[in-house]
Every structure is written in C-alpha cells, then in structure tokens.
Amino acid sequence: MRIAPGEAAPAEAGPAETAGPLSHARSWRAGIVQSVSAPGVFDLGPGYLEPALLPVDLLGAAYTRALEEYGSAALGYGDDRGALDLRAALADRTTVADGITCEPGNVLVTAGISHALQLIATILAAPGSVVLVEETCYDLGRLILTDCGLRPREVRSDSEGMDPDALRDALAGERVAFVYLNPTFHNPTGRVVPVSRRRELLAVTARHGTPIVEDDAYAELNLGGGPTPPSMAGLADYHGVIRLGTFSKTLAPGLRLGWLLAGTGTIDRLAGHGLFRSGGCLNHTSALAMTALVLAGDYDRHLGWLRERLRERRDALVDTLLAGLGDDFELDRPDGGFFVWLRALRRYREPDLLAAASAAGVEVAAGSRFGGTARPSVRMAYSFNSPTRLATAAQRLTTAWHAVPAHTDRT
Ligand SMILES: Cc1ncc(COP(=O)(O)O)c(C=O)c1O
C-alpha cells in the first residue's frame, strides 16, 4: 500500500506496509528526503535505515535535554573542533573500544564521514594525487575523492580485504596521498578484515610512510558474529591512521554528524581550516543533542535495540535467499553492517540479474557500481525494509533469478 503525499495513513495499514511510522508517513516524500522508492517497489538499494527505525522521539528528547542543559550555548557558534563534552565522550568510547588512550584532542567533530573525506582530500592531499582504494569499494566515497581532484586507483582485494602484496606494489610504483579502507562490515561486501590482515596492511603503509584513512561507518553495528576486531587506528595507536565515524548509520543520517580520530598534529591542521574558523563546528546544536544522548546511556541502549532489529532483517533476507537460490549463486551472512553481497556464476550477466529483479518489483544495487568485481554481483541492503517485506522481496528475487537464462558461451 502506498500513502500519497498529504494523505493520512489508515489505522489498519500497519507499519510494514507504509513508508514508516504512521505519524511521519506524510513527510517521507520527494523534495523532503533524498530518495523515495516508486510505489509498490521493494527497494533493497538504499544503504540507510528505513523510516520506522529512525528514532524520532529519542532525538526529540535529546534536543530538548541539550537546550535545557546548555541553554543559549547550544545556539551559538560551536567550538571549532566540536563541543568538548562530545569530543570527551567519543574519546572515552574509543579508549574503551580500542584499549588505547584517546583524548579529546584526538577528536574532530565533522558533518559525517562524507565531510571528513572531503576535508582530508582537500587539506591533506594535493590536487591530482593518487589515492589507493579497495577493488570493490564504497562508490560515493570514491566519488568524493574524485570530485576533490584526487585520482583513486583500485588495489587487488580478496575475501580478507586489500591484498598486502598488491598494496606494496602499488606504493612502490608511485607517490600516494593515502589509502582509503573500510575494513569493518564493508560497504558493499559486508566483509570484515581479520586482525592479521590489518597488521600486514599497516606494516606495508608504515614502511612507505603513507597514511590510511579508515572509514568505520558500520563499526558499531556488530550483529553478533563474535567480537569486532580492533580498529586499524587502534592497532597502530593512531600513528599513520585517520579513523572516521558517523551517527548516520546508528541514529539518523539527517543529523549529518560524525567524527574524525587522529593524532593531534592532524587534528590541529584540519581544525585550522577557514571552514571551522568561520562558523565553528558544523551542526553544533545537533552535536550537543548527541552529547546528551551518549552521556545519558541512551545511545548504547538504542544501539542494542537497533542491532536486534537489523539482525531480524538480515536473517529474513539471508534465510529466504539461501532457501531459494541454488548453487549458481553465493552469499555470506554478514556479521554486521547493512549489506548482503551476492555473487553469481560468471555465465550470468549482471544487467540480466538487475532487469529480472526490477521486473519482479525489487530494486537492488549493481555490483559494478562499486568498482571491479570478480563475478556478476549485486548488493542488497536489509536496513531499509521490514523483515516481512525483505522475506517477500527475497522470494521474488529467487524466482526471478532462477528464470534468468545463463549465457553458456560466457562460462
Ligand atoms: C562506507 C561508508 N562511508 C560513509 C558513508 C556516508 O557517511 P555519512 O552519512 O556520515 O557521510 C556511507 C553511507 O552509505 C558508507 O557506506
């Protein structure tokens, strides 16, 4: 069922069939939010939370608490590096998670990871510089680097992440500004780089004095597959690694709020930029609302709740796909994050898989969007639909993909 703009949802509709919590359905429309699925479509494309998982009431209370606690200071220009209370809270969380000492001076509050990447690409790298990225990587991260005048180069990667030998060769070949990695619950593959591979990659970059930019957008979304490996920044004691975090995947992308962790020299350099000098920290009022949320313990409670919801969604999608797809397709149950990465035998063609999905009323993301892929691939997000809808979408996909003709001349 579809709720037309401006129309109230009938009470019996049920959240699974609407665009989100009934009280907010009227506003989830083009011109207000970035993307709206076509009516009737099961959209497994978006890499963000579905409306029903966005904590409207929790955030309303957090803003109220921040205004009560900080008063007019919540409405002034914020400290250039971000409010000290939030930086201290984030530093404490990092100290606990990584077992190293992280201070507020190691934290810069940003308008999310996209903003942090743009800062790094423009302030820490000269235009035209080469940046190394994984063979299959977050496409919009790569777009930011390209738009800032950098030249991303793919480095061969396997099921454990970037190949250290290929990285060594790439670094020996030319001058590189930095290496961009997303080692934990990778977008799009869901992969987690094991500790041993993290250490190998760190050893290679340290030998060349090349920094790593560690995109940790999904690090807090471990869905119960064992402990999350220590961050690469933590393993290196924050020497030669800049680590990026965000509230977009755990709370709400509309906040446009995240953080950057690095050595104090790097933080000083970034925070000295005119963008911060003129205007202070971006999204200062939201930063104080998040401070209230984190300090009250509400953020951790929310994370527990969200992980449970995401686990149900992941399992609904993966269980139905595994039950229906035969040996021509391969997928792993991701231990965290938002994505299932499906690989087909080479005799299938990616456009045929996408077309069959579309014809069945299901949208998925083309694997080739994310760079080089060894086989025809598809990314499916389980973050943007209810478990019931994901199971229905997966059933439709298995039926549709079984009917796709294999190109025997292409095996
Ligand atoms: C790996 C990765 N990094 C960064 C982002 C964007 O983060 P932000 O909303 O904080 O800019 C995304 C969102 O899809 C992502 O998947």
Describe the overall structure.
It is a single chain. This protein has 411 residues and is α/β, with parallel strands linked by helices. It has 2 domains: 11-56 and 300-410, Aspartate Aminotransferase, domain 1 (Alpha-Beta Complex); 58-298, Type I PLP-dependent aspartate aminotransferase-like (Major domain) (Aspartate Aminotransferase, domain 2), CATH 3.40.640.10. The chain is built from 13 helices and 15 strands. The strands form 4 sheets. The chain has a 7-stranded mixed β-sheet, sandwiched between helices. Strands 11-12-15-14 form a 4-stranded antiparallel β-sheet, with helices on one face. Strands 1-13 form a two-stranded parallel ribbon. Helix 1 packs across helix 10 (284-295), helix 3 (112-123) packs parallel to helix 4 (139-147) and helix 11 runs parallel beside helix 13 (387-402). It starts with 41 loop residues before the first strand and ends in a 9-residue tail after the last helix.
Q: How many domain units?
A: 2
Taking the alpha carbons of the first and last residues, their distance comes to 41 Å
Topology as a string of helices (H) and strands (E):
EHHEHEHEEEHEHEHEEHHHHEEHEEEH
Hey, roughly how much beta strand do the residues contain? 5-15%
Largest sheet: 7 strands, mixed
CATH arch. level architecture of the largest domain: 3-Layer(aba) Sandwich
* SS content category: alpha/beta
Morphology: globular
* Number of distinct beta strands: 15
CATH class of the largest domain: Alpha Beta
